[in-house]
Amino acid sequence: MTAAIPFPLRDPQPAKEQTPTQIQPNLNVKLLCPDCKTQPPHIIEEFASGDLVCGDCGLVLGDRIIDTRSEWRTFANDEGDDPSRVGAAANPLLDGNQLDTVISRRDGGSGAAKDLNKVHGRATAVKGERNLVQAYKEISAMCDAIHLSKLVSDTAKQLYKRVEDEKLLRGKSSDAIIAACIFIACRQEKVGRTFREICALTRVPKKEIGRCYKALQSKLQTNTSVMNSEDLMSRFCSNLSLPIYVQKTGVDLVKRAKELGTLAGKSPISVAAACIYLVSALYRMPKSTKDIATVAGVSEVTIKNAYKYLYNEKKTLIDLEAMKGKTNASDLSFDNLPSP
Ligand SMILES: [Zn+2]
């Protein structure tokens, strides 16, 4: 005879820690008819009434179901694409609700669809919308060309829309307005791009873009912060394939030069260019004024001129002893610097 097991049943050994798989509940939701409880359940979705009904007894288990079936018939083999009703998300930068239909250009080869598409497009196009779409396309393309982020291109588009809506710049070419908008967007988002870089994107003369920019700036009253040399430094340095520690020293030099007013009155671009010239030579990775000029878009003379000031003040600007402890600073010497 077996001894009676005392209740509650206990395990003689202390309970082992349960593995996570043991305690995980079954999360699958099964819907059963509470009346017939047949397994597997035989439940029918009645889309006409929006009810969920038991197929055996007719008990209504739920109302308000969503019809997820498509409401068009698809002849995918005949037409190619699934004629899906949903298009891209509405673009807040365009007027109108953009829910209009577009007639496909493709058909069996009769050419009728192409004509229909053209006529339909002409009949429905919102005036001015097409220009706006075209301008947005150009802004996107230009921003892509100089590797600007979507944030900048969207800002530029918003600026452009404001210019168009409020008719801020009458009689200016849209190319010049676009360039000015991108330039202001860069400034607003603190992305260092020089005026010359923006100008190189279009065939519009620099003067014209400058005029648009000035007019826009006063009319929009945007607070376009002044471009600073530190922002430009990182891009110029990476374009010249200079290592990060050179860049850092360059930024320090720019800051110090600003504090001391060594290069007061010089443009941020020439300040950055001159500092790169000095720092690259200091680290024995000299970059020629020609190389720097190409990257920065300033003349070689400008770099040499600014460099002269830096060279004369080098001992107050750069604390070599403090830099010796840092990486790759073993052969730092003012002797590396070319005389101006
Ligand atoms: Zn039932």
UniProtKB/TrEMBL annotation:
<dbReference type="GO" id="GO:0008270">
    <property type="term" value="F:zinc ion binding"/>
</dbReference>
<comment type="function">
    <text>General factor that plays a major role in the activation of eukaryotic genes transcribed by RNA polymerase II.</text>
</comment>
<dbReference type="GO" id="GO:0016251">
    <property type="term" value="F:RNA polymerase II general transcription initiation factor activity"/>
</dbReference>
<keyword id="KW-0479">Metal-binding</keyword>
<keyword id="KW-0862">Zinc</keyword>
<dbReference type="InterPro" id="IPR023486">
    <property type="entry name" value="TFIIB_CS"/>
</dbReference>
<dbReference type="InterPro" id="IPR013137">
    <property type="entry name" value="Znf_TFIIB"/>
</dbReference>
<keyword id="KW-0863">Zinc-finger</keyword>
<dbReference type="InterPro" id="IPR036915">
    <property type="entry name" value="Cyclin-like_sf"/>
</dbReference>
<dbReference type="InterPro" id="IPR013763">
    <property type="entry name" value="Cyclin-like_dom"/>
</dbReference>
<keyword id="KW-0677">Repeat</keyword>
<dbReference type="GO" id="GO:0051123">
    <property type="term" value="P:RNA polymerase II preinitiation complex assembly"/>
</dbReference>
<dbReference type="GO" id="GO:0017025">
    <property type="term" value="F:TBP-class protein binding"/>
</dbReference>
<dbReference type="GO" id="GO:0097550">
    <property type="term" value="C:transcription preinitiation complex"/>
</dbReference>
<dbReference type="GO" id="GO:0005634">
    <property type="term" value="C:nucleus"/>
</dbReference>
<comment type="similarity">
    <text>Belongs to the TFIIB family.</text>
</comment>
<keyword id="KW-0805">Transcription regulation</keyword>
<comment type="subunit">
    <text>Associates with TFIID-IIA (DA complex) to form TFIID-IIA-IIB (DAB-complex) which is then recognized by polymerase II.</text>
</comment>
<protein>
    <recommendedName>
        <fullName>Transcription initiation factor IIB</fullName>
    </recommendedName>
</protein>
<dbReference type="InterPro" id="IPR013150">
    <property type="entry name" value="TFIIB_cyclin"/>
</dbReference>
<dbReference type="Pfam" id="PF00382">
    <property type="entry name" value="TFIIB"/>
</dbReference>
<dbReference type="Pfam" id="PF08271">
    <property type="entry name" value="Zn_Ribbon_TF"/>
</dbReference>
<keyword id="KW-0804">Transcription</keyword>
<dbReference type="InterPro" id="IPR000812">
    <property type="entry name" value="TFIIB"/>
</dbReference>
<keyword id="KW-0539">Nucleus</keyword>
